[in-house]
From TrEMBL:
Name listed for the protein in its UniProt record: DinB-like domain-containing protein
Signal sequence bounds: none
SUPFAM superfamilies attached to this UniProt entry: DinB/YfiT-like putative metalloenzymes
InterPro entries: DinB-like, DinB/YfiT-like
Residues in DinB-like domain copies: 29-161
Coiled-coil spans in chain: none
């Protein structure tokens, strides 16, 4: 059965091993992964860097989706970003446009969702209110704050990706 004929992920029931309070985060990330795969099916790689009306490019959104999940989940673990993560962040606005770039970017995001789901499964609900510092300034957040932000930020960028991809395809 294709995902297009299924109800949205949140209406398919609880996900095994994901703590009850983190189900909405997992549902949102799985929904985003499905929508990205659908949106990007047959998208031309040479249009990944186009910025209609000055909007962020489709390629930026794809790279940012994977990067922001990686970064927010790193902070949720109480870790600082690595040099590789900082380099990836710096390069997000410069998407590749070579043949094969689209499936590579879609797969990178899908793999990041898988890593996020694995982390959610191992996150005790008792840790959700724990303080976490964000960025070099160590701005205050919590484990649950970071995980929920990751889900809503992902959802927001999927919507922007959808709109920009439709404009670019025209």
């Amino acid at each position: 059965m294709s995902t297009a004929s299924l109800p949205e992920v949140w209406l398919r029931g609880p996900l095994p091993e994901v703590p009850p309070l983190l189900q909405p985060v997992a549902h949102a990330l799985l929904q985003a992964r499905e929508e990205v795969r659908e949106i990007m099916a047959d998208f031309p790689a040479d249009k990944l860097a186009e910025r209609p009306l000055g909007l962020a490019s489709v390629g930026f959104h794809l790279r940012h989706l994977a990067g922001v999940l990686d970064r927010t989940f790193t902070y949720a673990r109480g870790e600082a970003l690595s040099e590789a993560q900082l380099a990836y962040l710096a390069a997000e606005s410069q998407p590749p446009t070579h043949a094969g770039a689209v499936p590579e970017l879609v797969q990178k995001f899908a793999s990041q969702v898988d890593r996020a789901l694995a982390q959610l499964k191992g996150t005790p609900e008792s840790s959700l209110p724990e303080w976490r510092g964000v960025g070099r300034a160590q701005l205050p957040s919590t484990v649950v704050g970071l995980l929920v932000h990751a889900a809503e930020h992902t959802t927001r960028h999927v919507g922007q990706l959808l709109a920009t991809a439709r404009v670019v395809r025209q």
